Amino acid sequence: MRTQVVLAGGAGLVVGAAMNYLLSDLKSAYFRAYLPPWVICSYVILALGAGLLLVGLIVKPSSALRLDASRAANALTYIAVVNGIAAIAFAAPVLIPSFRFPILITQWPGIYMVIAYVAFLVVGILGNLAWSSVFRSLPSMGKGTTVYRSLFLLQLVGGEVGIFGMAIAMFLGGYVGAYQNYIGFGPVVVGIDMEFSVIPSAIGIFLVLSSNAAGFLNFLVSKDERNVLSGMRQAPAQ
After folding, report:
1. Measured between alpha carbons, how far is 105 from 200 in angstroms, rounded to an integer?
2. What is the pTM of this model?
3. Helix or strand or coil: residue 79?
4. How do the domains of the chain map onto residue ranges?
5. 185 C-beta neighbours (distance < 10 Å), count
6. Of 36, 126, 203, 204, which has fewest CB within 10 angstroms of its CB?
7. Which CATH number fits domain 65-237: 2.40.30, 1.20.120, 2.60.40, 1.20.1440?
């Protein structure tokens, strides 16, 4: 548990610092969205990251650092199924005539709704199934039967929070922009009304990328425990 907490604290510090830096840079740019709530959010993330890092350094180390690769693969498969159900829920409002989805998707901001939905399908369903297959195949590739629990949790939680956050933010931004364009507002007004979704979408994309990076790192550092144990037994004899 200690390693997971330290990694989570470090990730919180990195995310909070990066978020604060980008928001400070946006203040000098031509960006009209209301930024103070997000600045406060970056400070909260920094504080949480520092707190977790401190707790992780204080608590005693735990031996439960690794997770069976087959269990990790099963978890990712279950998550893909849950995301598939969520994808159906996302598409269900298309059947409600009052929402005018068939018309709004033809407006130029409507492309954001399409991108959000496709990204959710690719990352949330196909991506998790692909990672499930990778973890299930680790023994056949000579990489061992376990993965690092902390990295897997970062991958799982970061991926889910990221893809849901990005998809919801882009979908709402695209819907609002398409509706404004449909009723006759110009591109300036449409752009202003869509800017609320920019920062949440960016955070979601960052979390998705970080999630996949954690998965790749877990794959690279995974080792065959049998070879490690064999080397430890032979060491005294040498």
Report:
1. 21
2. 0.78
3. helix
4. 1-63, 65-237
5. 15
6. 36
7. 1.20.120
